[in-house]
Amino acid sequence: MTPFSPLNDVPATDPGLDFGTYAETLADFLRKADPPQLTIGIFGGYGSGKTTLLEAIEKELEPDARGTPPLYTVRFNAWRHDHERNLFLPFLAALSQNQNIVRSGKQKESLLDSIRALAFGFSMKFPVFEFSSEKAILRYEQLQEQKRAEFHKLLANYMDVQRVLRGLTHDGNDVTQKIVVFVDDLDRCFPMKALRLLESLKVFTETTGFMFVLGLDPGAVETYLERKYGSGFVTSHQYLEKMVQVPFWLPRRSQEDINEVMDQMLENFFAKNRDEDFLDQLREAWSKLKPYFPRNIRQTKRILNVLRAIRTANPHLDTTILLALLVLQVRWRKLYHLLHASPEEFDTYVLKAHCGSPLEDLRDLKKVYTDFIRPELRPLAEKVKPYLEHLGWPTRAKTGQENSGERQC
To answer: Whole-model pTM?
Structure first.
């Protein structure tokens, strides 16, 4: 078996698509913010490049650690701590472990004391970050007498958090260092945990010297809010507008943009792999089908990796047909299920399709099917089975919960 190096999911160091220009501009916003109290939101769907842009901005800010006052960066990947009861605690812990920011043992100990106090507060279910005075008073009145002393202690420690944070960026009234916190993968977390972290970050955003770059999908925030408050309470736009001063939406890329990036990526892929027979077939299949791939680099990588895995085990399968079926599986999942269940019905449906998809999307569907699948697999019901057996039957998506970026038909 010829060794093969898959396309990985690591953010690109040189992503193209104008990301370099965006990173320079947004880094300059952070560098020149006066006062240094700014939150930037990098908004986009699944696989749109949020992490890539966050890392590019962070790289642009590296030289500023030697500036006056110095600017330091901290990364917090929320998803890695999704098992924690409250994401705010590992967030503070990540901050405390940065030796550039927490400069003295006394500062670190003060921050750790605050973390311990907050952990105690969360376990007691006190309203630590409840900014509604009415709710706080009601909660206080509901407490048993013996717990009121603990409540007062907790409030004092909560105020200590704000004092300790200010001490990290100030000497008296002077800002001695600026801290930019990059928060990524919030939209991968359980909704209530992610929303709780966003609400907890208000403590930081009100502290001069702290700035944030948040990478998230506003559609996920909408889900968070609906879970907590019900539909119609507040939109994600209204919620984020109060927190984010620079909402930057990653532009939806044209198929030509995606193809250009993938062409370069595939050249690197070809250089690392030595199965010339497969690579020749892949080049031919890619040249035919790339206009119909999803406009999402991450999904495109995964399609090509799955293609290679299946072809390695089943070299008799036609590469172009297999690739066309994988595109169908990702872009039109509901119809892919229909193909599994009833190839004849699928054939009739697609040829007569007039569903609610965008015109371009419907045209792509018919093109992929009539040009690359149907002519080679007649009769369809018999000849498509060997391919579908190897492709598998993905879990059926529930209504309204399809993957972001997936077309519906």
So the answer is: 0.66
